[in-house]
Write a structure and sequence with these properties.
Layout (H helix, E strand, L loop, with lengths): L1 H12 L5 E12 L9 E17 L5 E5 L8 E3 L13 H12 L8 E7 L9 H16 L6 H16 L6 H8 L4 E6 L5 E5 L5 E7 L11 H16 L14 H7 L3 H25 L3 H19 L4 H12 L4 E5 L6 E7 L3 H16 L4 E4 L7 E4 L2 H5 L1
Parallel strand pairs: 3-5
Antiparallel strand pairs: 1-2, 1-12, 2-5, 2-6, 3-4, 6-7, 8-10, 8-11, 9-10
Helix pairs in contact: 2-3, 2-4, 3-4, 3-5, 4-5, 6-8, 8-9, 10-11
Bound molecules: alpha-D-galactopyranose.
Length: 392
Amino acid sequence: MREEMITKFQEIFDEAPQYKSFAPGRVNLIGEHTDYTGGYVFPLALDIGTYALGRKRRDRKFRFYSMNEPETGIIEVDKNWKYREKDDWANYPKGVVHILKSNGYTMDEGLDILFYGNIPRGAGLSSSASIELATGVLLDEMYGFQIERTKLVTYCREAENTYVGVNCGIMDQFIIGMAEKNRGLLLNTKDLTFQQVPLPLKDYSILIINSMIRRSLWDSGYNRCIEDAKRGEKILKDQGISTLTELTPRDRPLVEKHIKDPGIYGRIKHIITENHRTLEGVNLLKNGDIQGFGELMLQSHESLKKDFQVSIPQLDTLVEDSMNLGALGARMTGAGFGGCIVTIVPKVGVEKFKRAIIKNYEKTYGLTPEIYLVNSSDGAKCEKINREVNSQ
Ligand code: GLA
């Protein structure tokens, strides 16, 4: 792909690129809808992601081009850095440049940037945070800013929150910026302390199954989930509870007593139990108990379905079928309302498993689900392009 990208860059921008970056996508293993109330998450970075090539310009302009969206052509920005609906995907990299500029990072010369991504869009595998970080590390390296990585992650989230307008938590940008291959990352989203945790997979593989029901954070009730969670949090704060992670499933009577709205109660109940499952799940993995972890994944799905209410029948079917076909655990992953499930299955028989999943799903929904074998990856990185290799 790299050679094709370099050729395309030259074709589009007339000159050769100088730097290349890669930022992975992510799958969340457990800890869903907990990152906007300071809870725990446990995601993993994928080996699919966004590639970017960059070259400095002699003027102040920035030009963006995506090989995935050739119909939008080159998006050029000179002085007006405002969000523009018609710039579509390019608002993500534009947002990152804008946020860095507004935080005092000087970019006197502009850039030409070409992107290519292989994360299915709208599948809940974080294609947006991936393009943000691919841009972030490219800018950081090309201008020599040396921004501390957790700070860069925070800027990328700010771009999504304040520029694109999705109030997402920090999970996606954090794992994409900080991941280590073969490790899940347990993150406390309140204080950003984290641990890299090896995955004792041995005879098991992690699969992602795409329901092919495209979700969009805009159309979905994502921002509504946040509103409900914040309202519930506020009610409990008035009772002296400073954060939801202080509560455990045993505090249910207290929550029931104070939160009367059933919708909000369900959201809060999920968040409290999910925080607990996430910490417990990571402890099980540390003890090599992948079976136990699988059981918690299934409980997490049930809770997202019944209490938090962000699953859809297609995801439920995929979870149920996975379990019937011998998975250790399965759950919807990401915001919900469509997208993917993640499941842990024995390596032996994996092809048979896939065939059965596809057959049943096609029969029920008339759609063919895509199945991806998860290979993990390190976090986003950027390097100079070696000219000799380039000219070969
Ligand atoms: C989206 C958001 C994340 C997180 C998940 C749900 O992926 O970007 O911050 O809230 O949904 O866990």
